[in-house]
Amino acid sequence: MKVATKTQMNNMIRRGLFGNHFPWLSYLDWAASAKDPQHLHSMRFGVQLGAPWLYRVPVWEVYAYASQNPFGVAPADISVVSMPAGLIPRINGELQRSEHGLELHYSTHPAVMRVALALDPQDVHRIAAIAILRHFLDPASYDAVTELFDTYPDAVVEFTTYNQDVGVIPHRNTVVWEVRDY
């Protein structure tokens, strides 16, 4: 199967088709839901490729950013991802298969993916990629991430592994952000 567009990918991830993920809500749904004051939030302003993000936003600031709307998008196009405070990324990565075998572009810098991959990018292939994945991902997360290639053989799988269990599937330390081949 091919994931042809960012919009298609976003709809698929929200339906749980790529495994473990953080709950994504539109700002309007988030504002109407119960909130844990200890959680931090990421906000995406828009649905297009490259839409601006704000990271590690406390609950009270989500309301302020949404009302200020610094990027001028419709409230329905603001997404909010809630995460427990204290999460530390252990590895951010982009995994794909090629004629050279498994390829992993990653960083162990403890920052959000865009920052980590810009500051400390690493590239490994084949058995080295498998060894790094097995070191950081718990067994269930490793299986889930690598099994995505059974359905999406030409895709890039973007993921983050944390210092604790995360996401909508219990006992997993890894979330999938994107599965893309567009």
Structure description:
With 182 residues, the protein is an alpha+beta fold. Helix content is 31%, strand content 31%. The protein has six helices and nine strands; from the N terminus they run αβαββαβββαβααββ. The chain has helices spanning 6-14, 27-32, 59-68, 113-119, 126-136, 139-151, and strands at 24-26, 40-45, 53-58, 78-83, 89-98, 101-107, 122-125, 156-162, 174-180. Strands 7-6-5-8-9 form a five-stranded antiparallel beta sheet. It has a four-stranded antiparallel beta sheet with strand order 1-4-2-3. A hairpin with a 2-residue loop joins β5 (89-98) and β6. The protein starts with 5 loop residues before the first helix and ends with a strand.
Q: N-to-C terminal Cα separation, in Å? A: 12 Å
Topology order in helix (H) and strand (E) letters = HEHEEHEEEHEHHEE
SS element count, helices: 6
Low-confidence stretches: none
What is the overall silhouette?
A: globular
Strand order of the largest sheet: 7-6-5-8-9
Strand count, sense and barrel status of the largest sheet are:
5 strands, antiparallel
Beta content comes to 25-35%
Determine Rg (CA atoms, Å). 16 Å
Which structural class do the helices and strands define? alpha+beta
Mean pLDDT: 90
> Care to count the β-strands?
9
Which percent range fits the helix content? 25-40%
